[in-house]
Specification:
14 strands; Growth Hormone, Chain: A; 6-stranded antiparallel β-sheet; alpha/beta; 19 helices; Rossmann fold
């Protein structure tokens, strides 16, 4: 009898000190549930799948939300990745002890609900926040500050889900590693699916606002379903309201007025950026030319950077660099008239090239840009064949030979580094006919501490071509000088340039000749370095250029146009 009692006492003691026994399992489970309704492992897995998907979708979409104000560069990706990882780390850190103290499903789903509601209201606050951060900190620190304000709160809340999910799903302490591994794997699969879905399907298919609605719905679905099961009608109502707000904000008009002089004609999100067409009415009652006393400038903006400007009434380019480039080709003509243009933009420059007799093949990577060039800028498809491909990919694969190759890909917000290298220039040279001309448009400085980009591009091109000429389109900003940020045009050839005789020019052409001659400059390439695909410091040289260019855009267009 005593032996039996002693054996029972020993068994109980062993069960209380060994949590991997069935008794230990029951006690661990009871401490988690504490009388609360606990979701099944399947529902917890469903929850981490949807929240993991939402986290990466929000990170990818963040570039499109902030891009029109700050431009898309290394800064914006660095800021978003940093904010995402920091927020998740804080969420894990805070969520761990809270889940230990309050291991309740209602609390976890309440946190997810708050995150979803914050995401739903992002469209109401992102414009003011982005503008305020830009005005206060400019690009580098501004995009970091804006990313923290806009994305840290929901991402931190979503980061708290992981410790809660493990706590709630853990029914057997012997399977802690297996349970945690499964949940992290499911969350990661959701993240991968979310990034692909957002970048490849949603943004180019339905745009930023409606993609934000999809993210809101993705995040709110688990808590709404849970609170329906738990009969928490107030929480369900909050989730439904969040979805309704996101849906209403996503229903934007295609055309909108932004004041007495600005009209948004169209806006679309493509695979490569946010694209806008804006009409701006300019009034100058004292202008000597009656046609220019009031006129409309139509601009194509890609991620908030003007790529094309056209005088609507005259159907000609409003950008002086196009005129200078056209004058050079008119007075230094190659033997034939077959041109390759890499970087179509609105295609207004094609009008000018067609007038000189050029048949143009234009390589444009973004199909939406090509569509807008035809629809809003009158691109003549009879004299311009559009090839939707990356510029360097086309250079490597084409058998066509051209008399002129033009790189018109530079923007104040970014310089596509893979098109400014020795290898890229060699590929351009390989498709030139004998005596052909290679031309490029660069946004940079003639001289001063920030002129290393210009000198390096010039030095790199001269390592491929024997002859080169440079011209500047002076800035119209008050106080502009040689150290101002300008469009700098460069022309290269392996044969001497053909020269026109200015004595036989008409009065109209003589004005063009004088404008071209006045723009000729000499830049010393020695301070630069030869840029290669292996060593390409473009991103290190362009921050100041991006800052100055973005400030000009804010001054000329206003923050409402950029953030709309």
């Amino acid at each position: 009898m005593l032996a039996d009692v002693a054996e029972r006492v020993k068994s109980k003691a062993m069960a209380s000190t060994q949590p991997n026994t069935p008794s230990g399992q029951r006690e661990a489970t009871a401490s988690v549930t504490s009388g609360q309704k606990t979701p099944s492992f399947g529902f917890v897995a469903f929850t981490v799948l949807f929240t993991g998907t939402g986290i990466l979708m929000l990170e990818v979409l963040g570039t499109r939300i902030a891009g029109p104000i700050f431009g898309v560069s290394l800064y914006i990706w660095t800021a978003l990745i940093s904010v995402t990882l920091t927020s998740l780390a804080v969420g894990y850190w805070i969520g761990g002890p809270i889940s230990d103290r309050y291991p309740r499903a209602d609390l976890m789903y309440g946190l997810i609900l708050l995150a979803g509601l914050f995401i739903a209201f992002l469209p109401a606050i992102d414009g003011p926040v982005l503008n305020a951060c830009y005005q206060a900190f400019r690009i580098r620190m501004g995009v970091l500050a804006a990313s923290f304000v806009l994305f840290a709160p929901p991402l931190t809340l979503l980061g708290m889900v992981s410790p809660f999910a493990i706590k709630l799903a853990l029914a057997d302490l012997r399977k802690t590693g297996k349970t945690a591994g499964k949940l992290y794997a499911i969350s990661t699969v959701g993240s991968v699916a979310g990034s692909i879905l957002t970048g490849y399907v949603l943004i180019p298919g339905i745009g930023v606002s409606k993609t934000l609605f999809v993210i809101t719905a993705m995040v709110l679905t688990p808590p709404v379903v849970w609170f329906v099961i738990a009969r928490r009608l107030t929480a369900v109502g909050a989730g439904v309201v969040g979805l309704a707000v996101a849906l209403l904000v996503g229903a934007e008009p295609a055309q909108a007025s932004l004041g007495p002089s600005m009209t948004m004609i169209d806006k679309r999100d493509s695979l490569y950026g946010q694209i806008k067409v804006v009409d701006q009415v300019i009034s100058d009652p004292d202008h000597p030319d009656p046609r220019l006393r009031e006129y409309t400038v139509r601009q194509l903006l890609i991620e908030g950077t003007t790529q094309t400007a056209m005088l609507v009434e005259q159907n000609v380019s409003a950008t002086n660099y196009v005129h200078i480039m056209t004058y050079f080709l008119q007075f230094h003509p190659p033997a034939e008239r077959q041109m390759l243009l890499i970087g179509l933009g609105g295609g207004v420059q094609v009008h000018s090239f067609n007038k000189l007799g050029y048949e143009v093949d234009a390589v444009e990577i973004d199909p939406t840009v090509s569509e807008f060039a035809v629809k809003y800028f009158g691109l003549d498809q009879d004299h311009c064949r559009v090839i939707e491909e990356d510029g360097r990919a086309y250079l490597r694969t084409t058998d066509q030979r051209y008399d002129v190759v033009v790189f018109d890909v530079a923007g104040g917000g970014s310089q596509p580094f893979h098109l400014f290298s020795k290898e890229a220039f060699e590929e351009a040279e390989s498709v030139l006919a004998p005596g052909g001309i290679f031309a490029l448009n660069l946004i940079g400085y003639q001289s001063g501490e920030h002129a290393v980009l210009t000198a390096s591009v010039l030095r790199t091109a001269l390592s491929v071509f024997d002859h080169g000429r440079t011209y500047v389109v002076p800035s119209e900003e008050p106080g502009a000088s040689d150290e101002s940020l300008d469009n700098i045009l460069m022309f290269f050839s392996n044969s001497p340039f053909n020269e026109s005789d200015p004595s036989g020019l008409t009065p109209k052409d003589r004005i063009k000749w004088e404008r071209l001659s006045n723009g000729a400059i000499s830049i010393d390439p020695a301070p630069g370095q030869i840029v290669t695909d292996d060593l390409n410091p473009m991103d290190r040289w362009t921050p100041h250029i991006n800052e100055v260019w973005r400030a000009r855009l804010f001054k000329s267009l206003g923050s409402d146009v950029l953030s709309y």
